[in-house]
Each structure stands twice: as C-alpha cells, then as structure tokens.
Amino acid sequence: MGLAAAVGFALLFTCSALITHRIELFGSGFNGLWPAGGLPIVWLMVRGATVVSIDSVLLLAAAFAANLVAGGETELAAAFAVANFAQSWAAVMLLRRWCGDLWGCGGDRPIARPRDVARLGAALGVATLIGTTLATAAVVLLPGVNGSFDPVASGLWTGRNFASALVVVALAILIGYRVTSPPPRPSLRGADGGQLELLVAVLFTITTYGLAFSLVELPLAFPLLAASVWFGARFSTLLSAAHSCVVGLVTGLLTLNDIGPFANVADTDLGFMIAQFYVATIALTGLAIATGRDERQALATDLRQAQEEAGYEVSMRAAVIGSMIEGVLVVDEAGDLLVHNPAAARILGLGDELDTESQFALSSWTLDGQELAEDERPTSRALRGETVESELVLVRVADVGERVLTISAIPLPRDEVQHRARALLLLRDTTTEHAHREELAAFAGVVAHDLRNPLAAIDGWTEMIADELDAGELDTQLAREFVSRVRSSSRRMRELIRDLLAHATSSSRDLDVSRVEVTALATEVAAARHASGQVSAEPVPPVLADPVLVRQVLDNLIGNAIKYVAPGEEPKIVVQGCRSDARLVTVEVVDHGIGIPEQDREKVFDEFHRAHYREYEGSGLGLSIVRRIVIRHGGTIQAVPNPAGQGSVFRFTLPAYEA
Ligand code: ADP
To answer: Where exactly are the transmembrane stretches of this chain (predicted)?
Structure first.
C-alpha cells in the first residue's frame, strides 16, 4: 500500500513535469513549469516520509527522469535532480519545524492565521533558495556543462519553484484538512460571500484578466490584484487559494505563449520570471487577507462566547447570592460596599437601600453592650487578613431596635486594580435563637433551684430518721410524721417534673386541630378532678383546635380555680363562652376564689411566677403552659377580677370552628 502510494506520487510528478514540458514546446522552451516545484513537497508531506525511505529514492529517480526528458544533458539532469531533491526535503523539514501544527506538517489545523502564511512563505522561500543555489552551482561548476552564472536563469528557477510550491502546498494543506476533518464542514464559499457574489467575482476575474491580457499596449496589470483581494476578503481561504492557483496557471501559460502584459517585456525569460513572482504575490496576498479575516472572525467568536459565558456567570452568581437566606456583603478597605444581597438589607432593616454608609452600622457592640473599637470589628479584622468565624454581635438598627447577628468575615484576594483589601461578610439574624437560648438558660436555672428544694427536704427528713434510729428513739408516731414529710416532698418533685414535661410538649407538639366541644371537655375535666358539683359548664360554641392541648388549658385553669380558694371555702366555678367575632370564640373560666393581686395579673403567665407562693403549693408553670397553647392557636389570654365581686376570670380566645 505504502509502496503503491509512493509510486503513484512518483508517476504523478513525472507526468506533470512531462506535460508542462510538452506545453512549453509551444512556448519559450523553458522546462519545469509548476506544479512540478510543489508536488514533491506535498508528496513527502502526505506520506509523512523520512529522508532514508523508498519515497526519497523514487523522488530522486523521478526528478532525474523528468530533467532528462526535458532535454538536459545527463550530468546536468542528475545535478538538477539533486537540487530538486534537496529543495523538496529542505521545504518539508522547515515546514515540520516552523508550521508543526498545520495539517500535513505534523498538526491538524488549516492555514488560518497570517502568521501561518508568513511561516509557510518563509519555509518555502528558504528551501527554494537552497535549490536555486545548488542548480546554479551545478551549471557553473560542472566540467561538462561549463556554463556561466545567469541571474535571469537563477531568478527564473527561484520564481517558478517558489510560486509553484506556495500555491500547490497551501492548496494541499487546505484540501487535506477539509477532506480529513469530520463533518459538518463549513461552506466552501465561506461565511460571507453568497452564490451570486461568487458568480460576479468569477466574471470580474475573467473580465479583468481578459482585458489585461488582450490590451497589452495599456498597463492594465494592476486591476488583476483586485480579483485576488476580493476572493481573499469575501470567500473561504480554500477558495481563495484555488483562485490563486487557477489565475496563476493561466498567467503562466499565457505568458509562456507570448500573450499578455508579462510577455510584453523584451526579454522573454525576464517576462516569465516577473509573471512567476506576480503569481507568488497574488497567492500570498489572497492567503494573507483570507487568514487575517479568519483570525478576526475567530477572535470575534471567542469574544462573543466569552461575553456570553461571563453574562451567564454573572446571572448565576446573582441568582445564588440573591436566593441566600444569609446576608452577604463584600466591602473593601476604603469602605465601599461592592456586593450585597437582599437578605443583608433585610437583616439590617434597610430595605433595598443598603449603601456604603450602611455597612458601618455593622458590628458595633458586643452582646453585653460594650462598643467595639473600630479595629476590633469583624470587618476590620477580615480586611487585615484574619478569618472571623460565627461571632455574635449586637447591632442597633434604626426603627427596629437591637438585633443579635452571627457574623463570619473572610478575607478576599486583594483588588489589584485599586490596591485595596477586600472582605466577605456573612450575616445571620440570630436574635430569636439568642433569646431562646437565654430563656432556656434562665429556665434551667429555676428548674434546678426548684428541684433542689424538695430534694433538700427529703435529705433532711431521711437524715433525721437515720439519727433517731441510731439513737433507738424512733417511735411509730414520729416515724409516720417523718415519712409523710418525705412523701410530700417527693410528690412536689413529681408534680414539678410533670409540669416541666407538659411545658416542653406544649410548644414542641405539632398542632392537630379538629372540632372541639369546650363544654364537654370542661365537664370531663371536672369529673376527673372529682369536682363535678363545683363546676358548671355552660354552652360554648365549638372551636377549631387541638383537643389534647385545649384539655390541658381547661385542666390547668379549672385546677387553679379549685386550688386558689380561701381555706374552708367551697370552690364555685363557671365555664362559659360566646362568639366574640367572625373568627374567634371567647371562653371564660370564672371562679369565686381568692383573686389575683393587680400587680401580678400579667406576670402570673410568666414561667415560675407565683402570686401566692407561701400558702399554696405549685410549680408556677401551669399558666405559662396555658398562654403558650392559646398563642399557638392564634388566640390571647388575660386574667381579670371577677365583676361579681370575689375571685378571677380567665378569659381566652380560640379559632371558631364555623369561621
Ligand atoms: P401554680 O398554680 O403551680 O403556682 P400557675 O402558673 O398555674 O402556677 O399559676 C401562677 C400563679 O397565679 C399562682 O401561683 C397563683 O398565685 C396565681 N393564680 C393562678 N390561678 C389563680 C386563680 N384562679 N386564683 C387566684 N390566683 C391564681
């Protein structure tokens, strides 16, 4: 397969040399019109040949044969074959070195940049000069030839080979790339030029060349260049190279046959030489213009893509930052606010008006109310390069008051344009969390205290029992007394623990609402407390509430009403209710007990607050549980004096079932 391809190339090369030789029979008699100069280079490139290979042998043989047939003497034909061989190999090696990323030269891309054209031209130019030098040296130095140095002949060799190599190699690279690249391939016409324009450009070429080659008395060579510029500027690089190839061939052939402006020179060889350089010029011009345009278009495409990507990135970043629950701020050391999200503005109570000044409102106080010095603020610390993690600070927000924020501050890379340090601040409004934590801590303190009291009593009484036992003085009466005190203390502890559990579940339990008949529930609670005779339950409109929690409310209120009566007095309780508005039902638990002093009427709903702690036992949690439950249902509760004179009325609202 490899050998067949090499032989194929050798035959093609020999034939092209012979054909051009035959054509020249009609012309000036000079051998070697292109493409013979470019073909061996393409051959070695396509085959990826090495210097020591069958291709080299065949190339040498074919060049020798072609030069012989073209009418040279044996010695000169051999010398020219060596010059052809050296020139072709020099071109291939330089192309592999200077244009290694182009198709056929070791890479896989087409000629697409003016830099490619310059390197291609330089490689082929240097190779052609090597060939010229060798051929000229052979003519001058070979004893059998004994020629003299003829600058026109050397120029002719150079021009012919350079023009041929440039046009043929450029075309081969462009075609090779196009054929081997996977579809879909771009249009052969290029992105700019349409079909009609192509037709007009072809007609323009034919007309200008027709005129320039027929009206030789007039210096009409200059419009010819316009056709190459047109093709280079408007059509694909491949089409532009093909155009150069066709007009180059036509120019060469016509000049050889003494037609046209280049044949109009007195010395035919000189004219032909000028024609060859003209072909090289239009080929280079066309390629340079086409690749320049390609490069610009590629840059524009890259730029557009980069812009689209940047736009996408920006919108993505804005969406992410905008949807964060945490407040995000980026500030620099000059105090400029560079980035902020709606959450930050919301947390700082500033609506959307967060601006450079606003960030100074941040992080000014510690939780115990001490103002932070400027350089102790999380922002300042992060701007100095320190990372601040979840620090609690107090901010005073206009119209809103104090807020507890958890702030993290992270140093960002410096702004190298403005030479400023930057920092990222993450804010979380932890005011409620903080209040809960505080409340929990206080609660735990009271719980510990209240549990310790009965425990201390149990300890004390059991110790006395032990002492009496040791002394052998414990009579049954005394033992009974001590045991009853211990049991009373442990009962108090049990009740406190029960109330604590009820307190915890009153806020954590999920509401499971349904139609609740308050009257029936109140009757049940009274029965369970063996107080049916003391509680009268009047009709109350049905409510939409959690029955378990409403039972807890009634149990606490009825329990208190039974408990808080003067000693020896019989409790008398009424549960009644009515629709207070379209949405709510008001329920009242009315008693005739000891009443609540005015200053305690609101405080009794706080945890552990007791108005009658000396005379009556209790944990001080019942009413706080009641208030929590009512509030969770969207209602309110208050304690007022009984208008009938003695006792209290606990009045609360719950959602009406029929609302
Ligand atoms: P406890 O009854 O365990 O002390 P509560 O939270 O139920 O705790 O009540 C808080 C305080 O409110 C009681 O200590 C008592 O002083 C007062 N109180 C509650 N209900 C009544 C009532 N019906 N009459 C008079 N005082 C009451």
So the answer is: 41-64, 118-142, 162-179, 199-222, 229-250, 270-290
User: Alpha helix locations (H) across 181-267?
Assistant: 195-214, 222-234, 237-256
Q: Which of 322, 338, 370 is the last residue of a domain?
A: 322
**Shared-domain flag, residues 588 and 649:** yes
What is the pTM assigned to this prediction? 0.58
591 in contact with ligand 1, CB cutoff 6 A: yes
Q: At what angle do helices 222-234 and 237-256 cross, to 10 degrees?
A: 160
Same domain, residue pair 85 and 159: yes
Distances (CA, A) of 338 to 408, 416, 639, 652: 17, 15, 54, 52
Ligand 1 touching residue 560 (CB < 6 A):
yes
Of 283, 306, 322, which marks where a domain is finished?
Answer: 322
Number of structural domains the chain divides into = 5
Residues 141 and 204 grouped into a single domain: no
Distance 566 CA to ligand 1 centre (A): 13
All residue ranges of the chain with pLDDT < 70 are: 1, 20-36, 71-72, 145-146, 350-364, 398
Together in a domain, 138 and 215 = no
Structure-token match 């958890």, residue found: 406
User: 535 C-alpha to center of ligand 1: Å?
Assistant: 18
Domain that holds residue 291: 194-322
656 within ligand 1 shell (Cβ under 6 A): no
Q: Which two tokens stand for residue 478?
A: 């005394």
For residue 612 and ligand 1, the question of a CB distance below 6 A is answered with yes
Please tell me the residue having the least CA distance from ligand 1 atom 26: 596
Tell me: do 482 and 527 sit in the same domain: no
- pLDDT for 27 equals 37
Is the beta carbon of 619 within 6 A of some atom in ligand 1? yes
Q: Report the separation in Å between the CA atom of 596 and the middle of ligand 1, taken as the mean of its atom positions.
A: 8
Runs of H (alpha helix) within 472-530: 476-508, 518-528
Residue linked to tokens 């005015």:
598
User: Which of 604, 614, 626 has the most ligand 1 atoms within 8 A of CB, as the residue to mutate?
Assistant: 604
140 and 277 in a single domain? The answer is: no
Report the sign of the C-alpha dihedral through residues 595, 601, 605, 608, in that order. negative
CA of 449 to the centre of ligand 1 (A): 19
Residue linked to tokens 């405080």: 603
